[in-house]
Design goal:
With about 130 residues, the protein is an alpha+beta fold. The chain has two helices and eight strands; from the N terminus they run E-E-E-E-E-H-E-H-E-E. Helices cover about 20% and strands about 30% of the residues. Helix 1 (about 50-65) packs parallel to helix 2 (about 85-95). The longest helix has 18 residues, at about 50-65.
C-alpha cells in the first residue's frame, strides 16, 4: 500500500513541517487549509465567506492533484474562531459539496495560524478509478 505525498502549486505551500496531503491506499488525508492565496502565500481579504471560499478552493486543488474531488470526502473537520460564523461556513460548504454530505465536525478554537478565522481539513476516499495517481 505505502504512502504517497501529494503536492500541488495550485494550493498554498505548507507553512510548517507537514505535507499538503498524504495518500495511503484509497484514503487521502488533506492537511488543514487556511485562506492563503496559492503562489502569493498571502491571506485573502474579506469576510468569513470569502475566507471559507478560499479554503475550499485550496482543498479542491489538493483533491484534484490526487485524482479526486471534494465529493470524495468522507470526513471534514472545521475549526472556527467564532461559532457565530457556523451558518456562513455551511452556506459556502454547500457550494463545493454535493449531497450526500460527508461526516463532519465543527469546533470553536481560541486561535488559528496567521490569526485567520477558519481552518478546514478533509479525509477523502479515492475509489479504484484513481489507483494510477
Amino acid at each position: 500500500m505505502g504512502k504517497n505525498i501529494i503536492q500541488t502549486d495550485a494550493a498554498p505551500a505548507a507553512i510548517g513541517p507537514y505535507s499538503q496531503a498524504v495518500r495511503a491506499g484509497d484514503t487521502l488525508y488533506i492537511s488543514g487549509q487556511i485562506p492563503l492565496i496559492p503562489g502569493e502565500m498571502t491571506l485573502i481579504d474579506g469576510d468569513i465567506c470569502a475566507q471559507t471560499d478560499q479554503v475550499f478552493k485550496n482543498l479542491s486543488a489538493i483533491a484534484d492533484a490526487a485524482g479526486g474531488s471534494l465529493n470524495d470526502a468522507v470526513k471534514i473537520n472545521i475549526s472556527l474562531t467564532d461559532l457565530a460564523n457556523f451558518d456562513a461556513v455551511n452556506a459556502v460548504m454547500k457550494e463545493y459539496l454535493n449531497e450526500p454530505y460527508p461526516a463532519r465536525a465543527c469546533v470553536q478554537v481560541v486561535a488559528l495560524p496567521k490569526a485567520v478565522d477558519v481552518e478546514i481539513e478533509a479525509i477523502l476516499y479515492l475509489a479504484e478509478k484513481y489507483k494510477g495517481i
